[in-house]
Design goal:
Layout: H1 3-19, H2 32-35, H3 43-47, E1 51-55, E2 67-74, E3 86-93, E4 99-104, E5 109-116, E6 119-125, E7 137-141, E8 144-148, E9 153-156, E10 161-164, E11 168-174, E12 181-188, E13 196-198
Antiparallel strand pairs: 1-2, 2-3, 3-12, 4-11, 4-13, 5-10, 5-12, 6-9, 6-11, 7-8
């Protein structure tokens, strides 16, 4: 993924966030130069991968297959220094963009439509061997519990949410004609290095082609504390 694409997507998401009146923590606005003098007191950001996360899943077509995310807070089950047992993300999915089918091995999460268009999440149960089961899928949504056929696209309008459980396959799309979506995620601790199981083999983080200077550093790029 070209750095220019990453920079463009971050600026686009910043504009969508401002449109919906959401305020970001200070570290989301730091420049690469400002990061150079951040000492050990900011290691929680480094160690728990807080901040910007733009991915094309290593497939080179972000506008059609990708996601823009910000991890706002996160614990770390592999480091006893960090006691939080929860995480929060803010995500953007553009109309016409798709985030591919996957599940989490251990994390359960609430996905919330924070504003914009209609979010569509297709759901399957994992058969136990990584393939789709044809059994009905339990949907927990804003206090309502019900079942849908495997592969159903559950629609979430602004303000609506769904709970996704470990081994519950899901993807993300936007209903055509409804516009870009700002998405919230409230979950158990997040670990994007080990807890994702994609239905089709792909990477989680992009390989970056440096065609211009970075506007913001991604969560995988912070310099070590001096």
């Amino acid at each position: 993924m070209k750095r220019s694409e990453i920079n463009k997507s971050i600026r686009y998401m910043e504009a969508l966030i401002a449109e919906h009146g959401f305020k970001l923590p200070p570290f989301c606005n730091w420049t690469p130069e400002e990061w150079e003098d951040k000492g050990e007191e900011y290691d929680e950001i480094r160690d728990n991968m807080l901040g910007w996360d733009i991915t094309d899943y290593g497939l080179g077509n972000w506008e059609e297959l990708g996601f823009a995310l910000i991890t706002l807070r996160n614990g770390n089950q592999r480091n006893e220094k960090y006691k939080k047992v929860y995480a929060e993300k803010l995500l953007m999915l553009k109309e016409g963009q798709h985030s591919p089918m996957h599940f989490h091995w251990t994390k359960s999460e609430d996905i919330i439509n924070r504003g914009g268009g209609t979010l569509v999440i297709h759901v399957y149960n994992d058969k136990g061997d990584g393939t789709f089961d044809d059994s009905d899928v339990l949907v927990n949504s804003d206090g309502r519990s019900y079942y849908v056929k495997a592969g159903t696209g559950v629609e979430l309008k602004p303000g609506e949410s769904i709970t996704l459980w470990p081994h519950q396959y899901h993807d993300f799309d936007v209903k055509e004609g409804t516009g870009d979506v700002l998405i919230g995620e409230v979950s158990m601790c997040n670990d994007d290095t080990t807890d994702n199981r994609f239905y089709e083999e792909m990477g989680r983080f992009p390989t970056i082609e440096e065609d211009e200077p970075p506007y913001r550093l991604l969560c995988t790029e912070y310099p070590k504390a001096k």
